[in-house]
Write a structure and sequence with these properties.
homodimer; 13 helices; about 290 residues; alpha/beta; three-stranded mixed beta sheet; elongated
Chain lengths: ~290, ~290
């Protein structure tokens, strides 16, 4: 069992840290918000005064922060004080450029590092069933895997530094696009005399099949567990989908790639969020397309 | 066993009619193209001089024609001469307005009718494994089902008159959108250092999962049976996807529904077709997004 520093104890970080404690690790945590620290303490995390104090003496440092600038700033702050061989795992969802910068800070100090953003949301974080998409050397990945397992349903090594972030934004761009596509089809069906169930029955077993339809159906009825059945309470908030689509657009523009539907999806989620629905589940965009929300 | 008129013996109609002959039905066929008639004759179809002659004395009339105007014109031509009780099945993929007009022509003569467009392509037509999406009364559907079975893998009753066409265009709009979304993600992945296989491994078991990715993957490798592995030989030609997306846009505009990604997908397939790739498989649009085709 290891001493693990966990920096960033929000809605995701807190339950993730709790699962590391349950697995028998000694977890030293830090967050800027006192209420997050209080929760962490209740979960058995040893609360520290700042990020450097949390990282001191740790064999593994895990960060779970809102954006690339936070990760780079924390790495610049703590990496000089880490002991030799400390493994750095960043599970934040951030831009690829910042992810590579963070890897560079670790590499210059001779430390192994991986980017390992997750999918699965707060439910997956609590249940310890997150999917980790990891980027970094095979050696760093091999070192990281046992520490990810207590928080994970699945851990995938996607490639070199930044590949975890790349996999997450590419996957979520497909997700955002397919959700809008499915939502458009349901709204069209409504207006041309095709029931939700009939469209579901045809498309779910045909070439229109997709996770957005068959697992996360954006209209109530066909998939009882989907957020549409609980008034679009998230789930996966529209604001987070917008964040991921913006990261994809940043990466596409930096790489000179045209992603016309990805760009349009980002615009539509910006519109939906701007209409006051940033906190609704992202599948709720069907209501905007229908003209149900203003 | 029944006498069935089959009007429209092209790439789809001919193998469909052949499967009805194999099932023991007596099939009277007509097509405007002499070479289609020659093929039909080889398949055991009794070739007639025109549509009215083919329909004469038939208990069932099946049409498989390019567009709504052809179906309406054939119905106007043949319906007055049909005997009482003749069942009309239109398997063409056409606009909903024309489909309802055709139902109306049948109804005014007191005849049962269904619209029953198919998916599955020429391969499914030859193998007798098409999916039929049917619209019409429960009585008409019940009458039609045994005649569809020899051509079908699956027959779904989608609702009243026009619901079969509605299901097909809604499904195929999801398909066109999700294919472009998947293609954009692969092209983005290529430029940001994520391998095709890594993206496939993550997305195929995650929220990006869709038929366009897991059955019909638009890049060679991950799904060996997909058209990407045979230089985008169709399969399902881009021209046919464009036709279906245009039908969806017509229906959306007539109904006053906004389908922004459906509209964009239609534009992108129009561009791809205009660049000379109408005959390529629709998954080949990945090459345009990558900048591989001019």
């Amino acid at each position: 069992m290891a001493t693990i520093a966990f920096i960033g104890l929000g809605n995701m970080g807190n339950p993730m840290a709790a699962n590391l404690v349950k697995a028998g690790h000694s977890v030293q945590g830090f967050d800027l918000m006192p209420e997050n620290l209080a929760k962490a303490r209740d979960n058995g995390v040893t609360v520290m005064a700042n990020a450097s104090a949390a990282a001191k003496g740790a064999e593994v440092v895990i960060t779970m922060l809102p954006a690339g600038k936070h990760v780079v700033s924390v790495y610049e702050d703590i990496v000089p004080g880490l002991k030799d061989g400390t493994l750095l795992i960043d599970s934040s969802t951030i831009d690829i450029e910042s992810a590579r910068k963070a890897h560079g800070i670790a590499a210059r100090r001779g430390l192994p590092s991986i980017d390992a953003p997750v999918s699965g949301g707060t439910g997956g974080a609590a249940a310890g069933t997150l999917t980790f998409m990891a980027g970094g050397s095979a050696e760093a990945f091999a070192k990281a895997e046992p520490f990810l397992q207590p928080m994970a349903g699945r851990v995938v090594h996607c490639g070199e530094a930044g590949a975890g972030q790349a996999a997450k934004i590419c996957n979520n761009m497909i997700l955002g696009i397919s959700m809008i596509g499915v939502a458009e089809a349901f709204v069209l069906a409504e207006k041309i005399g095709l029931s939700h169930q009939a469209l579901f029955d045809v498309a779910s077993t045909s070439s229109g099949q997709c996770w957005s339809l068959t697992t996360y159906c954006p209209v109530p009825g066909p998939v009882p567990s989907s957020p549409a059945n609980r008034d679009y309470k998230p789930g996966f908030a529209a604001a987070l989908m917008l964040k991921d689509l913006k990261l994809a657009q940043e990466a596409a523009q930096a790489a000179g790639v045209a992603t016309p539907l990805g760009a349009q999806a980002a615009q539509l989620y910006a519109l939906f969020s701007g209409l006051g629905h940033a906190g609704a589940d992202f599948s709720g965009i069907v209501r905007m397309l229908r003209g149900d929300v203003g």
